[in-house]
Design brief:
About 40% of the residues lie in helices and about 15% in strands. It has about 325 residues and is an alpha/beta fold. The chain has a domain of about 220 residues: NAD(P)-binding Rossmann-like Domain (Rossmann fold, 3-Layer(aba) Sandwich). The protein is globular, with a radius of gyration of 19 Å. The structure holds nicotinamide-adenine-dinucleotide (NAD).
Length: about 325
């Protein structure tokens, strides 16, 4: 198949590109950012990169006309953006998604939209199944803009599906692995990674008892591929993740243990890190029955194994 991945130069996109190339697919990526994460694929005969944006209608038109399937991963991702540049989060994540869907509809191409566990907000009922409620805070709190931007994207997906477009939504739960983000920025594992590799204390926010379900990227990619090419997926939304909960404190301890680093743990307040416009979510757990039953994928990589591979990769960089 010919496949377009928007935001394909990002973390998930780089792994998805590799997996699709290994299947024999032809992969186009649309990526305005750096190409570091896909530099090892640049000479591949079935891999092409277009250095442009989902905000460009003409580029989307020329690319989507040529492909069979679109994975729409392009987004402004990362807490620093949600609280630092909410305009760009909303603009790219809402308007960019609408652009992709509009062109895909014109050519009748299936779209797989990358959404997030953040759409459930702070719904206290756990685990979250796909049809559960969204429970969010005030629009005066910038951190909810990402959740809202992805939820609007989902509404557009369902609206286009009603018009006849094949669309599938994947909601990822804390996917991690090699090439995640730069150390010290982005997500919790890369923030801990920088501290770990320098032997500094790992800064745990609050009491560290907030949990996440850390999902190894290979498992997430297997589910993503099935969402695009497997049967019974059109018009569906899937939680993509393991249901094994890990506290942030245990994550920090495990990373120290695996790496043999002399790092210790230092507790900091969330205000110290994010200021007042951030609200943390205590627990996040997916009901992943649909992923296992319809996509036929188990998120089975143990955290210790996935972290060991991730730490090793960052060490060699
Ligand atoms: N990794 C996770 O745990 C996780 C969790 C929930 C949701 N997601 C979603 O999965 C997708 C991929 O996430 P990721 O972890 O690879 O993040 P990432 O930030 O590494 O990848 C996103 C990519 O989109 C690109 N991008 C930004 N603006 C763009 C634009 N205007 N046009 C084209 N590309 C643009 C970025 O440069 C980046 O390479 C995102 O949509 C994200 O919201 C990921």
């Amino acid at each position: 198949m010919k496949i377009l991945i928007t935001g394909g130069g990002g973390f998930v996109g780089s792994h998805l590109s590799e997996a699709l190339l290994a299947r024999g697919d032809e992969v186009y990526i649309l990526e305005p950012g750096g190409t570091q994460k896909v530099r090892h694929l640049l000479g591949h005969p079935r891999f092409r990169i277009v250095r442009d944006s989902v905000m460009s209608h003409d580029i989307l038109d020329s690319l989507i006309a040529q492909v069979d399937l679109v994975y729409h991963l392009a987004a402004v991702v990362g807490v620093e953006h949600y609280v630092g540049d909410p305009y760009e989060v909303l603009n790219v994540n809402v308007n960019g998604t609408q652009n992709v869907l509009k062109v895909a509809y014109k050519y009748g191409r299936k779209v797989v939209f990358s959404s997030t566990s953040e759409v459930y907000g702070r719904n206290p009922k756990l685990p979250w199944s796909e049809d559960d409620d969204r429970v969010l805070g005030s629009t005066r709190i910038d951190r909810w803009c990402y959740s809202t931007s992805k939820a609007v994207g989902e509404h557009f997906c369902f609206a286009y599906h009603k018009l006849g477009l094949p669309v599938t939504i994947t909601r990822y739960f804390n996917v991690y692995g090699p090439r995640l983000d730069k150390i010290d920025v982005g997500r919790i594992i890369t923030i801990f990674m920088g501290q770990l590799l320098r032997g500094e204390p790992l800064t745990v926010i609050g009491d560290g008892l907030q949990t996440r379900c850390f999902t190894y990227v290979d498992d997430a990619v297997a589910a993503t591929i099935a969402a695009g090419v497997g049967p019974g997926t059109d018009g569906q939304v899937f939680n993509i993740g393991t249901d094994v909960e890990t506290s942030i404190l245990d994550l920090a301890k495990l990373m120290i243990d695996i790496s043999g680093s002399p790092s210790t743990i230092r507790f900091v307040s969330k205000e110290e890190v994010y200021g007042n416009s951030y609200e943390d979510i205590a627990r996040r757990v997916p009901d992943n029955t649909r992923m296992r039953k319809i996509l036929g994928v188990e998120a089975e990589t143990p955290l210790r194994d996935g972290l060991a591979r991730t730490i090793e990769w960052f060490r060699t960089q």
